[in-house]
Amino acid sequence: DLSLTVSGEGDGISVLKTLLGIDSRARIIVISGNSQGKVKATVEALGAAAFVSKPIDEAEFAAAVAAATQL
């Protein structure tokens, strides 16, 4: 579990950027309790394969995994 909004040495957004900087083809699914449209738009604009809101809906998660593996 990686928080998107914790300040300090790093946060989920920074880790997402770093991982995609290492491998731009990485298929990263972000799961967060912060389901504001702005957060979702930000991680998708950065290159996340999908965004799933907590609490996790099993069907939504399965669809996100399927979509990420199709890329």
Features:
single chain, 71 residues, mainly alpha, two-stranded parallel sheet, globular
Structural commentary:
The mean pLDDT is 86. The chain is globular, with a radius of gyration of 12 Å. The protein is 48% helix and 11% strand. Strand 1, helix 2 and strand 2 form a beta-alpha-beta unit. A two-stranded parallel sheet has the order 1-2. It has 71 residues and is mainly alpha-helical.
Shape category: globular
Query: Secondary-structure element order, as H and E?
Result: HEHEH
Radius of gyration, Cα only, in angstroms? Answer: 12 Å
Mean pLDDT across all amino acids: 86
Low-confidence stretches: none
Topology, number of strands: 2
Biggest sheet, spatial arrangement of strands: 1-2
Estimated helix fraction: 40-55%
Taking the sheet with the most strands, its summary is: 2 strands, parallel
Quote the beta fraction: 5-15%
Structural class, from secondary structure content?
mainly alpha
Task: Give a concise summary.
With 71 residues, the protein is mainly alpha-helical. The protein has helices at residues 12-22, 37-46, 58-70, and strands at residues 29-32, 50-53. Helices cover 48% and strands 11% of the residues.
